[in-house]
Specification:
The protein is mainly alpha-helical. It is built from ten helices and two strands, in the order ααααββαααααα. It has a two-stranded antiparallel sheet. The chain is globular, with a radius of gyration of 18 Å.
Length: about 230
């Protein structure tokens, strides 16, 4: 927890003079999506509030917002914890991803598309793989899909998917062999990028659909083995 709190202290400057619960929630959501707070982690009010330099009421409102997004859970007399997903949660996350991401790709206008950000995260994933940092590969993979959604140019779609991708990171945390899970998607990301670069959104959409189907199967397999249907372990 000390390392995580140190990272939060670095985010303190992001709050600025107009600190709000929404901005605190943005920071915590990002930290969850980056893997700083694994599922089941208790989030102590005093420590986190002190790291960010905010009031207890502001932090509690941020917790409430993230609880509504299903990223946190409040347990009576115990505190606030990062949520542990169930198999049903994982399946629903991928159902949402398929609906939104596939629609974004197939709904793109005429090429050429602005793919600079997408290309950068592909290279980030490749670099992390070369360094053997498979958690960073997972993070780069999430960033790839975030940038893919951003091609729609829709703030509402971006906002919807921010919490979905943060939940996805919670699912990745239970994977005991992150290399086995993430390595194949480095190539798949490149294939989608190349299809879009060629202006073939239909092919990119087909690649994406196959990608999500395989990813769902693998993640659910791990979940059933390590966490169980109810998300309680065993």
């Amino acid at each position: 927890m000390t390392e995580q709190l140190s990272g939060l202290a670095d985010d303190r400057a992001l709050l600025g003079r107009t600190s709000t619960a929404e901005r605190v929630a943005d920071i915590l959501r990002s930290r969850i999506a980056e893997g700083y707070f694994p599922p089941g982690t208790r989030l102590p009010e005093d420590s986190i509030g002190g790291a960010l330099g905010i009031s207890r009421n502001t932090l509690r409102e941020a917790f409430r917002l993230l609880t509504h997004e299903r990223l946190l859970v409040h347990e009576l007399n115990r505190g606030v914890f990062v949520r542990v997903l169930t198999v049903e949660d994982v399946e629903d996350i991928y159902r949402t991803r398929r609906l939104v991401e596939s629609a974004v790709v197939r709904g793109l206008g005429d090429p050429p598309y602005v793919l600079d950000a997408l290309a950068r995260v592909v290279e980030q994933g490749r670099r992390a793989a070369r360094e053997g940092d498979w958690n960073a590969v997972g993070t780069a993979n999430i960033h790839f899909h975030r940038e893919l959604v951003a091609l729609a140019g829709s703030e509402r779609t971006d906002e919807l998917m921010r919490s979905v991708f943060a939940e996805l990171r919670l699912a990745f945390h239970v994977v005991d062999e992150p290399k086995k899970l993430h390595e194949p998607y480095i190539t798949r990301n490149v294939e989608i990028l190349e299809a879009l670069g060629a202006g073939d959104r239909e092919k990119a959409g087909q690649l994406l659909t196959a990608y999500l189907d395989v990813s769902l199967e693998r993640v659910v397999e791990v979940y059933r083995r390590r966490v169980g249907e109810d998300g309680q372990g065993g």
